[in-house]
Amino acid sequence: MSHAVDTSHYRAALSSGAQSEIATFAAGCFWGVEHIFLKEYPPSQNKGILKTSVGYTGGQEKAQNPTYREVCTGTTDHAEALRIEFDPSIVQYGELVEFFYRTHDPTTPNRQGGDVGTQYRSVIFTHSPEQRKIAEDVTRKVQEEHFKGQTIATEIKEAGQWYDAEEYHQLYLFKEPNGYQCPTHKKHW
Predict the structure, then answer these.
(1) How confident is the model at residue 6 (pLDDT cuts 50, 70, 90)?
(2) Most buried of the four, 51, 63, 83, 161, by CB within 10 Å?
(3) Phi/psi of residue 122, each to 5°?
């Protein structure tokens, strides 16, 4: 059963004088990725996330404005991803990268749990050289501290064209609390 969702609970104003930044993560089904980030950093509690959107990125240039069905075929090469606008005066990019790693299995190429396909790959899409360096540093730290004997398969790529997913995907697990959620989307440490 669908629930009415007051989206104002999932939006926050930027701190005065601050400039927002964007973080983009792909970690399997975007419903669960958005849900776990917003549960940890609820905008209404001023924890740094200002707003989110789920969508598609990292695909073929010729595959513009893909639909969910097209992305699910694997022919567009897009990843299901979460785009986060955040206030870096409240939450640092490195903290978001570490939380990304805590909340999915970054060792499985092109899958999370039972969700299999290139659209479910693990990717950090960076928006600046500084973000890339932070992502690489955090990845090394997480590899050494939490994945000994395993190899992190997460790609770190420059962010490209972003396409918002269809409206019914936005805040999906808040609208559909009993909806499908990948079992890997939980805090692992």
Answers:
(1) confident
(2) 83
(3) -95, 120
Say whether 182 is catalytic.
no
Token pair for 86: 């955040």
Distances (CA, A) of 87 to 23, 47, 153, 158: 11, 9, 28, 20
Within 13 A of 108's CA, how many CA atoms are on the CB side?
Answer: 15
Place of tokens 């939450």: 91
Residue-wise over 71-87: b if at least 16 C-beta within 10 A, else e? Answer: beeeebbbbbbbbbbbb
Lowest mean pLDDT among 106-110, 121-125, 133-137, 177-181: 177-181
In order, the DSSP letters of 75-137 are: SS-PEEEEEEEE-TTTS-HHHHHHHHHHTS-TTSTTEETTEESGGG-EEEEESSHHHHHHHHH
44 neighbors 10 (Cβ within 8 angstroms): yes
* Partners of 158 in the β-ladder: 126
What distances in angstroms separate CA 77 from CA 36, 72, 162, one per listed residue?
24, 9, 13
CA distances to 119, 130, 165 from 28, rounded to whole Å, are 7, 25, 14
Say if residues 22 and 51 touch (Cβ distance below 8 Å).
Answer: no
